[in-house]
Design goal:
7-stranded mixed β-sheet, about 15% strand, 9 helices, about 280 residues, Glycerol-3-phosphate (1)-acyltransferase
Length: about 280
């Protein structure tokens, strides 16, 4: 009696036969090999396409971010000077940092990213700026990607959180990090500086430029940094102060490696921000 094989009586596979005739399976084996080869070719082509297209996409995104930041600069600088008595001090320290560096900034209000942008001279070499952004805002506000925001990946390991900024710095860009990781929102107890600033600085080997924001703005949500009435009546002020640039090894006498050393280095970074004058 013949045994069913693929829905049809097989001419070679007998009921109690331990194996199959190789000639019956040759078509199947060839088909599998053919599919494997096709998959390998498809993956190789995909890699080639990504390698060719991704750099162009990243360059285009960089150009968009640069155009957006410079365009907004021209409009907002006048508004900030009129409504917020916006001032900048210590530009000489900025020049010492070169073209690629890490801006370490204290966090006062939701206007801080704009204030940091406006603190820079209107020079092409200082733009675009890339910001370590709060994950929640990055996820719900799609346009954040075109403003220079980079997700912080909060709660994840330091390697994942810092990878994108480290890559950007390796390409000669400028990164903005708020070591506190958020706004105090009127809380008297200050946030403890996070290790990320130390990790990114250690891995990128870039200078850290402290930037202190002196302002009477608050971090309440109904602002954009303060009540609209107060903004329009000139009751708020913002002063940006660049401190002396330094390397991360200047904080604890060596490049931090352990979690404890990264924490100590981050605390010294924040102390340098607070004492900038």
């Amino acid at each position: 009696m013949l045994e069913l094989y693929d829905g049809k009586p097989s001419r070679t596979v007998l009921r109690r036969e331990s194996g199959s005739n190789a000639r019956d399976l040759s078509g199947v084996v060839f088909s599998l090999k053919y599919r494997v080869y096709l998959d390998i070719i498809a993956i190789a082509l995909l890699c080639v396409i990504c390698t060719a297209v991704l750099p162009d996409f990243m360059r285009m995104l960089r150009s968009i971010i640069k155009i957006v930041q410079l365009s907004a600069y021209l409009l907002l600088i006048f508004l900030f000077r009129i409504l917020l008595d916006f001032k900048v001090k210590g530009i000489g320290n900025l020049k010492k940092a070169g073209d690629s560096f890490i801006l370490a900034v204290n966090h006062v209000s939701y206007l801080d990213p704009i204030s940091v942008c406006l603190a820079m001279p209107f020079r092409f070499k200082y733009f675009p700026l890339f910001y370590m952004a709060y994950d929640y805002f990055y996820d719900i506000l799609f346009f954040y990607r075109f403003l220079g925001a980079v997700p912080a990946h909060q709660g994840k390991d330091l390697e994942l959180s810092g990878r994108q900024l480290i890559n950007l710095l390796s390409r000669g860009e400028r990164a903005v990090i708020f070591p506190e990781g958020g706004i105090n929102k009127g809380i008297t107890v200050k946030r403890r500086p996070r290790r990320g600033i130390s990790y990114v600085a250690a891995k990128s080997d870039k200078l850290i430029l402290p930037l202190k924001i002196e302002s009477n703005l608050d971090g309440s949500v109904n602002v954009i940094g303060g009540k609209v009435v107060n903004l329009l009546t000139g009751k708020h002020r913002i002063k940006m102060v660049f401190g002396e640039p330094f390397r991360i090894e200047d904080t604890i006498g060596k490049t931090p490696e352990s979690l404890k050393e990264l924490r100590l280095a981050a605390e010294d970074v924040f102390r340098r921000i607070e004492t900038a004058s």
